[in-house]
Give the backbone structure.
Amino acid sequence: MISIKKEWTDTPPGPLACTLPIRRLVEFLLRTGSIDNRFTGFDRANEGARLHRKLQRAAQKEFADYTAEVPLTQQYGCDGVEYTLEGRADGIFTGPDGIPTIDEIKTTLLPSAEITGKQSPEHWAQAKIYAAIYSKQNGVSPIRVRLDYYQVEEEKEYRFVEEYTAGELEDYVRELLTRYAPWAKRAAHWQHARRVGLEALTFPFAEYRAGQRAMAGAVYKTCCEGGALLCQAPTGIGKTMSVLFPALKALGDGGPIFYLTARGTTRTAAENALDLLRLHAPGLALRSITLTAKDKICPQPVRECTPDACPYANGYFDRIKTALWNGLDIPALTADALQALARQYQVCPFELGLDLSLWCDVVVGDYNYLFDPVVRLARFFDTRGDYLFLIDEAHNLPGRARDMHSASLCKSAFLDARKRLGPGKSSLKSALQKVNTLFLDWRRRCEETQGNSRFGKTFFEKNRAEELDRRLTRLCEPLQDWLDEHREPGETRDALLQLYFDVRAWLRVADTFDDHFVLQVSTHGSEVRAAMLCLDPSAFLAADFSKGRAAVLFSATLSPAGYYKDLCGLPDARAVALRSPFPSEHLGLWCARHVSTRYKDRDGSIAPVSDLIACMAHGKAGNYLAFFPSYSYLQTVWEDFTARYPELPAMRQESAMDDARRAAFLEQFTPDGQTLVGFAVLGGVFSEGVDLIGERLIGVAIAGPGLPQVGPRQEELRAHFERTRGCGFDYAYRYPGMNKVLQAAGRVIRTPQDKGVVLLIDDRFLAYENRRLMPPHWEHLRAVSGTEQLAAELARFWKDLPPSDGQI
């Protein structure tokens, strides 16, 4: 047992209370050994749930009174702590001799020789606690425990049964709770200190910015009462603190708060806000953790989570409690802090972060941890909890959710895998060939329907590809066997392992395929690509949000609110839109209505667009960004601009820039009084989440209203929403496009002292349908009809003169 290493002077009033999920308790106390991904499998939680249901149905046929998924809750007083144990037994039934039996089902990939019934004591412990509660509440003794292992590859059951008296079970539960008491006491003291500290916490600034108090009030009300809030808050209002501070004030004894983001830069903003609160209130009991992707935080040169390959995986569960106990002394568990702890105690930093998250008040991480069905935090979201969800840059959520619930496969991956296996016959090669043959059939169908498709070699189906799913299911077993037999790193193993992951991802999505999906098959040369596209993620997101008490979705661009409420699965959410806190006269805003950037007009627009960008850059020395709807259009204008305006230094975004090259690009935007024009892609990494304050950026030009490129997928989206909502073009094109425009324009004014210009290049910006999507602080948008008029407007703006006539 780990002894308590510190004394608490601020003692909570009354008995210490602790609510514990039973599975969490037994795994924490009894799990030993190493992390070993050979025996965990891909998408284990979803596969395990499916097999549980299969075995429960079989048991219901065998025992007439078999009841599945039985919730069990019981209070125990032990060692000064009042515990509430909660769990859900897989099944309860009465044996032929009248003795009740608790059924605990576990799926496993362990070799059959290792399934002895004694390999995982935490499994017995979980079932024995269920039996103790059932015995206590129903006055029965003796009672049996049946531990049922299902070996996934063999599709075979291994069953173990033990019988206990009520007294034996009661003693066993109390022994476990006594061992857990130091941890329970530490958690209870921390929660009391947190509650006292947060009640006394005040806003960390001398005063609220304009609109900040209203935003904080709306967030607080939502977090206290429950439900959902969509908040459109302009850049500069201080969104991060405006949601974190009121959420913490509303936390009470619940939590944790999940601050979820689409980009790493916004995670840093959350970390900085939490640090500021701790600085403002020294001694505040507030523990936060930032979860980082496994590939980014892994200390090994090659990530392989097995005890043989990784010293941080070997013996992880034997060392983790010491690392956890000391990690709880660190209030800000950033990636750097987790890596330092991992090195000190030789434990995996990724798994350490997941284990520590259970003891934290704020969890900062990517959207994936709540919304992705494969990597979501099952330790939190298997059941509903008293959680608060803060969703930053929420305009990204519908698109990200579509990707999380979609899947694709390419013919070349199966053909390549078959070739890599070399000569000879095998069940794996045969299974790969059967999948490849189906793709060949689809290629012929694509070519047959080519003349009827406006997009060429592609076709869509409203139903799932059942024959492909059957062949992929048959492929999984020999592919898994091959991977188990060939563990040495290499290109062939990497290729087949990736194929296995892709196949499992496909089958997971196939299980959810309904009328919110479409199957697309397309050909490009010899390649055939199949994709299950999630068109409408709203049902999935609604289920995810239902796991918590309240959700706040915030961004500078959430217009129209009805669109985001619909696609995020929150039809009853409140929506508020706040005005910019900065003077509108600090933003010069013009639309060049004499230019069309429509695809059919692109060739004729190149020189006029270059001229307008040059005119903007000549207006005042400084740094500018020009955004384009595609790399090809960017490249064409870039070549024209650099040839005709060599006096204006320029650089361009390139495709597939890594983190270092992106950072180098932004480092060129220095406040040195020199002129620089950066060419970038609208909707890319430089059009949102970039904070170039003051003279680092004084102007942005945007060529076109950002409409997604017309293509098969986008047209299928349009057709779906036209059929289901009656506004297909808006949902598929207009709303996503204008969101990109507003995000890009938001790079200019970041602080009350900033002053800059935004130039919209395309007559379509003046259409009512687009104007109504613009924020209130854009009411002074003005139209220009050429570079001469724009130059005059810019001169007046930079000299702080009143604008001329021409406001729309």
Q: What stands out?
A: The CA atoms of residues 47 and 580 lie 48 Å apart. The first strand starts at residue 16 and ends at 21.
